[in-house]
Amino acid sequence: MPRTSKNKFEIINDEIHISKEGWPLIGLTTYREDYYEELTSKTWTLTKANSETDDKGYLSNKTLGLLHRYIVAKWYGQDVLDTMTQKGFVVDHLNNNHTDCRISNLEFLKKAYNTAKGQAFDVDSKMMEHHIAVNIFKDFSTGCYQITIGCNDDIVGETKDGKKYHITAIMLLYDCDYSIVVNDAENILRIYETEGRIDVTKTYACDVKVRKAIDIQLTEEEKNGAVVIRDGIPYLILGTGNTFLNSVHFEKGWQPPEKK
């Protein structure tokens, strides 16, 4: 008789949500039918469950090992994981959340670069997120990366004819090595912190999309709020310090212009 896992598993869209009594968090990974039964038959624990910080470590099982490496092996092949490990690469969590093991959040990175990312981008992005929320994603369906920037500060753009508009998000597409994407993300943060501007022309992005803010007339009372509702649709009120974006999700299937 197979052993029963002590975890609770829930499939939401294409994600597996993993929880356990006493955990202060939900673990995430990508659903796929071929490994779901094996994954959910095991009990997953946190490697630093008793840590007094928010970092509770990695999801681990005595038989299957670390969840992020297990998932990478399933998607890329165990031979690829073994080869990359021998070459000095580790599996990086793009958003630095070690319990987010979705395949879109995992990528190979040289150990030295991974250490540098942990000391620079991962720290700076957390520190700056109430100004600009910068996140990195990998779209496994295209093999490309995306940097998304959620604009919590009041960021203003300008059209070619001089008309100004407010920006809620900027999305950058990359078809290059992951380490270059990480470097661009850190530079975006550094330039904004020191100069107060976002310059996408200085990046290695092969395509850029800008989401303009929706022009909504607010009452004096609404201006001090966090959310406003129009026609049954809720809208966040950004730039007031009352509410913040912590992440803008990537656009699945977005491809470089030359591949369309």
Could you explain how this protein is built, in words?
The protein has 2 domains: 1-127, no CATH class; 129-248, no CATH class. The chain has 6 helices and 15 strands. It has helices at 33-40, 67-76, 78-86, 111-119, 121-128, 178-195, and strands spanning 8-12, 15-19, 27-30, 45-46, 59-61, 65-66, 89-93, 100-101, 106-110, 132-139, 144-158, 164-174, 207-212, 227-230, 233-236. The strands form 5 sheets. Strands 1-2-3-8 form a 4-stranded mixed beta sheet. A 4-stranded antiparallel beta sheet has the order 10-11-12-13. Strands 4-5-6 form a 3-stranded antiparallel beta sheet. Strand 2 and strand 3 (27-30) form a beta hairpin. It is globular, with a radius of gyration of 20 Å. The chain starts with 7 loop residues before the first strand and ends in a 24-residue tail after the last strand. The relative contact order is 0.11.
Find the structural class using helix and strand composition. alpha+beta
Helix content: 10-25%
Radius of gyration: 20 Å
The helix tally amounts to 6
**Helix-strand pattern:** EEEHEEEHHEEEHHEEEHEEE
Straight-line distance between termini: 51 Å
Overall number of domains:
2
Strand order of the largest sheet: 1-2-3-8
Strand content: 25-35%
